[in-house]
Design goal:
Strand content: 15-25%
Distance between the termini: 32 Å
CATH superfamily of the largest domain: NAD(P)-binding Rossmann-like Domain
Order of helices and strands: EHEHEEHEEHEHEHEEEHEHH
CATH topology of the largest domain: Rossmann fold
Number of strands: 12
Helix content: 25-40%
Shape: globular
Oligomer: single chain
Number of domains: 2
Number of helices: 9
Structural class: alpha/beta
Radius of gyration: 19 Å
Largest sheet: 6 strands, mixed
CATH class of the largest domain: Alpha Beta
């Protein structure tokens, strides 16, 4: 978008929101592209989400991202939801259309896949079984992305078995749901392990998972980016596995959002990554 005479606006809504690194990332891109604009953190209580979203057109926002706890509730508020968000079951990005209506999509799966490809360009989802820990919103985006890339064997493990079964039924495809008690065995023969739980996040216990059955040629990924390196990533790296941390998922999911809002697809650079890493 070459509208240099217009102040561009976007933001992220969450409750709380102070932990988000999205404003730093998006404002870096505004500066890099020489655009007058700002990306702001918006602390929106759940009961105020409708009013906040519906106010975006009047405030001349191009759109916003959504984070916890708003990704599901937004379905009831935006005017149109695309097939990706419907399939994943969450909205991560809202666009304000020219007529003032709101459309919703989900870019989290894109962020996950592009993060993997940035560090492992020859990665293939169909290279072997993929063990995915967790069945929440993050896991739904991960599994959707894996299926899109042609995964042929996904082993899904979650503490609440029924939730994993629901995810598998709704997304379809070659997903085998295993009980939490079998999580260690799920790594046997796996080509990739993904932690899509909140275990290992700052303030949370580490993921309770033994890696002894995981091949040292397997790729290990975590969608958590605070801390920069989770206990799982540290343990996998120490035993010789290739690892991918969660920060890039955040960085890359912002690129299609910018494309939709401003007509520009920004780059994830080493400079941007270093800028964010210094705050973790």
């Amino acid at each position: 978008m070459a509208a240099s005479d217009r102040f561009l606006l976007a933001g992220v809504m969450g409750w709380p929101i102070s932990q988000s690194r999205s404003p730093m990332m998006h404002n870096y891109w505004f500066a890099k592209h020489g655009l007058a604009g700002s990306y702001v953190p918006l602390a929106i209580e759940p009961e105020r989400l409708r009013d906040a979203l519906r106010a975006l057109p009047s405030l001349n926002f191009a759109g916003c991202n959504l984070t916890i706890p708003h990704k599901q509730e937004a379905f009831k508020i935006v005017h149109e939801v695309d097939d990706v968000a419907k399939k994943i079951g969450a909205i991560s990005c809202v666009m304000v259309r020219p007529d003032g209506s709101l459309s919703g999509t989900n870019n989290d799966y894109y962020g996950f896949i592009e993060n993997i490809l940035e560090f492992v360009p020859d990665w293939r989802a169909d290279a072997g079984p993929v063990a995915v820990m967790g069945a929440g919103g993050g896991s739904r985006a991960v599994v959707y992305g894996l299926l899109l890339r042609g995964a042929k064997d996904i082993r899904l493990v979650n503490r609440t078995h029924a939730r994993a079964v629901t995810l598998a039924q709704e997304l379809g495809g070659p997903i085998t749901v295993l009980p939490w008690e079998q999580r260690h065995d799920a790594l046997d023969g796996a080509a990739m392990l993904v932690n899509a739980t909140s275990q290992g996040m700052v303030g949370q216990a580490a993921l309770d998972l033994r890696l002894d059955k995981l091949s040292k040629t397997a790729l290990v990924a975590d969608i958590i980016y605070i801390p920069r390196e989770t206990p799982l990533i540290a343990s996998a790296r120490e035993r010789g596995n290739r690892t991918v941390t969660g920060l890039g998922m955040l960085l890359h999911q912002g690129r299609p959002a910018w494309k939709a809002w401003f007509g520009i697809e920004p780059k994830v650079t080493a400079e941007l990554r270093e800028l964010i890493e210094k705050t973790l």
